[in-house]
Amino acid sequence: MAITVLTSPTTPNVTDTRLVYSISSSNSLAPQFQFVTDIYEQGGSDLLTRLYSYPNPYGTGIVEISQILGDNLEYDNDWKTSGGIPASTSFKGFDIKFGEAFGTSLSSSVTVYPNLTTNTIEVFPGTVDVDQGSFNFPNQTTYQLLSNQTQGYITNDIYVTIPVYAPSFATVGFKDIKVEFLDKDGNLQFSNNCSLIPSTNYEIYQQGIGIGTSLFNNPFTLLDWEYIKIYELATSTLLTTFNRVRPCNGDGVTFAFINKYGYYDYYSTGNPVRKNTDVTRESYTQTKVDYSSIVSTYDISRRGETQYNTRYSDNFEVTTDYHDQITADWLTELFDSPNVYIQVNQEFIPIIITNTNYEWNMNENRQKLFQYTINYNYANNRYGR
After folding, report:
1. Is the separation of the CB atoms in 215 and 163 below 8 Å?
2. Domains, the chain, ranges and CATH?
3. pLDDT digits (tens, 9 = 90+) for 103-127
């Protein structure tokens, strides 16, 4: 018996794509033949799922497992980390074990021969553009900010994390990022380095730079900074910039949302939040005459129509500032995001974005700046009565 893996996805990879394996077997012409694919967490012994697949006309098995791996990942809500923390539930390795099953005749019982060859893959819940020319996430041998944000906007009293994809320690030799706080004139006010945990594997980290962090809490909350710049320390490559937002009269809101890589980005606007409430009332009508008393008398205060259930749905709306096309395109990920929160008193409240469409900047000559209106509801409405 021989199972051969003809093609496999690259690793690390993402689950919002197509993770396709092509396999062959020297027994593919055997009666009742099927390929067997067993999926385990890397190094684990508990079988997550088993797939059976018939050979195609060329005798090859084509197996696609992205949804199965995605179902075994969760988002890492490490907003309040005091330093850097590795992604644990959103970045995992899986052992894909291939085998086969067949009988001795068309009517015989079938014997399964599992785990004849193994392929290991690491994945995280990112996406791949279907028009980029490949199913695979484009791996790099340098640091990569897991965000399309080039200019971020945040206030100074919130939690903020930086998602970083770090190649193997053997490739880069060290894993450090540098964080600078600058005033409005670009003068350095404070600087510190984050030493990410060295490893021989590719890893993903979320580095806290906002409130509550061990390295940056004081300058983040006390200094009169205007910009924060994040660099890869080894090459001084700028990864991203945050601009400070100053809310007017305490207005504004900060969103935390899962971006296209599967990690949290943050966006603050200082503009006022508008709110309206939809009220749903259920009622019944009782008679004016009281049939339940010994003597029925006229009662001017006896209610006819009575409400027995009232439900509220609070709807919120906020308009962003004007942004250039790069920032506006990044903000569309907020509307696409499967997981969105707002920060209220340094707590994360889940919300639902209710926008049903948004507009892209399609004509640079006509439209240089973009502004969005974000509509949302709380995921947990207040109790009815």
Report:
1. no
2. 3-127 (2.60.40), 140-244 (2.60.40), 247-277+311-385 (2.40.10), 278-310 (no CATH)
3. 999 999 999 999 999 999 999 999 9
